[in-house]
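Data availability (excerpt). The following record was deposited with the supplementary files.
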Amino acid sequence: MRLASIRLITDNVDRLVTFYEQVTGLRARRLTEQFAELVTPSGTLAIGSTDTMALFTAGAAVPASNRTAIVEFQVDDVDAEYDRVAGYSPEIVQKPTTMPWGNRSLLFRDPDGNLINFFTPLTDEARARLTR
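Predicted structure:
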């Protein structure tokens, strides 16, 4: 089994796509007005409109209500990223902090309130966990 993507459901696809393009520096692939993908070497962040949920089960995903999942991106320098993304994020939850498991981490929210973690592994052990 291979994790293919994480999908965020939103009432405003354009706003969320623009935000993620700004903070990641990636260009989204717009498959339809209601669906876009930001493809990275390790996986895809998909952004879908609430309209797309009608194709599954209506109401199964409720936009802007996540309080448990964190979308994580490995970056080269968390401290440099903090200065850059601070202007885009509606809320910085935690400034760059070194975590006990060896990552330096920046936690912030997207416009829908979803948590995003930009992190940089600092220790050999932290880097080794990412090279499986």
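Summary of structural features: Residues 13-24 form the longest helix (12 residues).
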